Fold this protein.
Amino acid sequence: MKLEGKVAVVTGGGRDIGRACALRLAREGCALAVNYLESADGAKRVVEQITADGGRAFSMQGDMTHPEAVQALAERAVAEWGKIDIVVPNTGGILARKTLPETTLEHWRAVFDVNVTSAMLLVRAALPFMTEGGSVTLLASQAGRDGGGHGAIAYGTAKGAIMAMARGMAKELGPRIRVNAVCPGLIDTDFHNIFTKRDVRAKISDSSVMKREGTAEEVADLVAFLASDEASFITGASVDINGGTIFS
């Protein structure tokens, strides 16, 4: 196991990419602190699966835009296992598709809070407990590179900020801690089930090199690699995983 004895914190771990990341890191030997907001059943099943396989995990509800909830998550991870090695701030979302004339200040701030502020708060809370050689993997998006689809200006801008934050944090926290971001393209998740029309998804898939949507497990494989010593000379990078939809 590449990450035997490590402690990882994954937010939004009750479903989709967060769930896949938690399970993948656990298979590599990590103890898992799994945060969720509304996906209580999903987070419970993640913990049950990890523990059934002989791993260590707990789930904890909390709104990662609230500093006190973030701090409580970090402190419980340390209380359970004494340290934090890996941080995966996966909390995020588009919330709603809104054109610029439809975008209220409240919507703009909410999108930035759930995507950008939540990630900053988690890294800040975990930092005092992180070990030498620790890693942070932020969840950006292809939308951060191309601006996103129709009605996704706030989301695309927020994910672009995540990419900038990865570079800034890498410079500030290195060499002790590495910080990277992943930029998923069209991944088969509830995000797209809710916010992307089927014909649009088919068009994007057909225009990609791989001719299909990605899976949450494929994103989790990349996250696990970036968290491992196999990626020991990679920091400040924003790594695309989009099946060849765009190249950067």
